[in-house]
Amino acid sequence: MDNGLLKDAETFMSDDRRARLALERRFKGNISGTGLTLGQYTFLAVLGRLGESTMGVLAKEMGLTLGGLTGLVDRVMRMGLLERFRIPQDRRIVKVKLTDKGHDTLKAILDHDRRHVAECLSEVTKEDREAFLRVFKLLVDRNCEAIEMLAESGVGD
CA 50, CA 98: separation in Å to the nearest integer? Predict the structure, then answer.
């Protein structure tokens, strides 16, 4: 493999670690007044994106077991941020959805995050932002595809 490509990969990995740590610290600061953990916030964000969802779909989306997700759902339910229910046509299927309080909490956090990211991106030209977002999406898509292939093959279970 090309040494330049390996050096670029090393630089990317180092910068990625720094960015993840910084984002984690910022997210923890943003949610500190809500009583949410970072995992609970992530769960709310996933559920907010998916809308009403089954426990099975959420578990797969978050990379959790049903048991792990059930504990997470129980804790977030006690905060009044979501509700769990069964559908009348098939009582075996359990679904969850955000409550009004859950939507409001998630919206407040996401609005704050969106303003912060926009402020960071404002320091970059429109052309560079477009190029960055295009490449970033490509890398995210490739990594998500690789994770899905591993999950389908049973690796990591």
Answer: 10
